[in-house]
TrEMBL record, chains A, B:
HTH lysR-type domain sequence ranges: 5-62
SUPFAM superfamilies: Periplasmic binding protein-like II, Winged helix' DNA-binding domain
Keyword Transferase: no
Organism: Flagellimonas aurea
Pfam families: HTH_1 (PF00126), LysR_substrate (PF03466)
Name the UniProt record assigns to this protein: LysR family transcriptional regulator
InterPro entries recorded: LysR_HTH_N (IPR000847), LysR_subst-bd (IPR005119), WH-like_DNA-bd_sf (IPR036388), WH_DNA-bd_sf (IPR036390)
Gene3D superfamilies tied to this protein: Periplasmic binding protein-like II (3.40.190.10), Winged helix-like DNA-binding domain superfamily/Winged helix DNA-binding domain (1.10.10.10)
Amino acid sequence: MNYQLELRHFIYFLAVAEELHYRKAAEKLFISQPGLSTQIKQMEEILGTQLFVRDKKKVSLTPAGEYLKKEVEFILNHLEQTKKQVKLIGEGQLGEVRIGFLGSAMQNVVPNLLLGLKEKFPTVHTTLEELSNRAQINAILADRLDLGFVRLSRVPKGLDVRPVFEDTFSLVLPGDHPLDEANFKNINQVADEDFILFSQDYSPMYYDTVLSICEDSGFVPNVSHKSVHAQTIFKLVENKLGIAIVPTTLQHGFQMKVKFIEMKKIKQRAVLSMVWKTDNRNPALQKCMDLLMKL
Amino acid sequence: MNYQLELRHFIYFLAVAEELHYRKAAEKLFISQPGLSTQIKQMEEILGTQLFVRDKKKVSLTPAGEYLKKEVEFILNHLEQTKKQVKLIGEGQLGEVRIGFLGSAMQNVVPNLLLGLKEKFPTVHTTLEELSNRAQINAILADRLDLGFVRLSRVPKGLDVRPVFEDTFSLVLPGDHPLDEANFKNINQVADEDFILFSQDYSPMYYDTVLSICEDSGFVPNVSHKSVHAQTIFKLVENKLGIAIVPTTLQHGFQMKVKFIEMKKIKQRAVLSMVWKTDNRNPALQKCMDLLMKL
DNA sequence: ATAATCAATAACTATGAATTATCAACTAGA
DNA sequence: TCTAGTTGATAATTCATAGTTATTGATTAT
């Protein structure tokens, strides 16, 4: 005698409220009329209110039933929507991917990913945050980020990495520097200059790589300044406070009195990788990764 | 294996989503852990989506589950509200009463009813419509009105009537008419004047009653004008186009150069009755009627 | 190792939804 | 005023399945 309301009740109720006829409603529901009768009666008992008036030969709604009908229509409709949404999210057709990236990834990889997402999965939303390598790794481990774009060769256990973009390095020189594309041969030519590099803790891999480039040429660079922003580095070069070595694509999007000399011959590459938590179950992330494989 | 989603599923789901722990959730729900496990699994099957990730020693929500949790919270909350509302409407504590009335009922009975409702059942709303006797009867029969205030002695089958207010009749005379409260004795004194009365089809009972008043005095009135609005009748009297006989309380609320002489001695009374459909199940109407019994 | 704790699985029980069969109340034709 | 044919409500029964107990396998902690 202490029953609970169930969706079944609502569906049955709505059928009767629409047909105002038990037998016809029962037929529509593919159940027997007595079953329907008892369920409606039970429902009235649960709610503590008469919902239908069964008068001589005709069924009609009470005001409470009238009210409930509207509500049930809303609830069942809302439910149907919810079911669809849940399914879509489960399939990764819908949802959110939280992306972190190094500033240098914004030149190329991240915009392409966003464009691809917009085209193939327009219902997948993204949040973007520019973060250092370390900050991205921490955020991913703490489940505050789904996907990161970093320059690291090794990542903590539980995370997966995969290179997505390889870039040559370019020398960054003041606009009026004697060296140019034509007379540049070897990085030894600038061995005595001051160097401006990205900070180690912003991207140790980059730092190590640049040092190894110099090492391969037989000198140790004199690092006078370190920074975390390309903008700052270029500004320092422009003001003749030193020269820099940066990933080639970084040059796009800045308007500075500096010149870039791409060093195609040196073997080191600036590798941008994506990182994610191995057990991340965000289905929208899967769609993202599929897309990145193709870029 | 073709199950239906039920509210039970939602309640179970929410418990697990909150506890993120099957055994604890099951305890909270007073069911066994295996039962809970199978129900959640079934739910995931119905929705076609994983809702929880059961990893080494810890349960967590998938994005789809995260979304569903919010929706379920909303739905269950909305449902609880609805249940309460339905109960209240069933008890007549809430709802709407559609009232029709003759203009003359607005002087006294209807305002008192509204005041009483506001005090005792502030959640019962009303809609008001000034309508003729006939229009009210039709509207009540067609279920467009719950309650009417009419001047009729007989009503069609299926409707109930009950007098709610008895009023004496008053003579309405131009302001400068020789007759007044002091020298008035008998309606015979105005037997030769022109009479202005409410139209028969607006209220046949009133019409008959006025005629019977005259008849009792031994004359047949000369009816020069008929109208449906007190305002019009008073205006005509003011302009000396005739005199009128109206229910006494009608005089309130008008500012006219007319004088009223209450005829307490004549036996006829202007009876205002309430009418309603015998089988009207609007519980808010019951509250209305209870109130009117006490007025 | 051992014990403890997690969720999942298997076999079983028992609740109660749904069925069939029937009834009582009413309507509409002969 | 008889049927015959509606209507929804009851009663007895069947049967699906939610929920139970008992157990397992996997993992963690001591």
